[in-house]
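Morning F.,

Quick status update on the modeling queue. The single chain you submitted on Monday has been processed. Sequence for confirmation:
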Amino acid sequence: MIRILVSLSPIDVAAEQERAELDGALATFTGMVRADDGVTELMLEHYPGATERALQVLAEEAVQRWSLAGATIVHRVGRMVPGDRIVFVATSASHRAEALQACAFLIDRLKTDAPFWKREQVAGQHRWVEARASDDQSAAKWRS
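Structure tokens below.
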């Protein structure tokens, strides 16, 4: 089972985790908005339809590659503040190694492969967040 959701609503981690518990092992990741460099607001934009499709393709690849029982990606968009949950990823498999590897794969790849645009507010000024070389390096290790 694959569950993809892109929403303006806050992420209910407990509910999502309960939905994702499908087999012997469950690996999860929850990412939150950080206050690095004095960030007071994060605006996340996306291209509806294209974003969900990109996430679906990644989840399908993970399910096939690790024989998962399920994969969940819930991503928030819109205005957020430090501490808000921005992403929840869960993978369910018969064994922990597959669930953990698939979860890491999804996090690493969605950072580079999903069409999201981030704008931060710092000291009353807005700035677009550029792609990081470290994110590209993390994603590249899975492309083989």
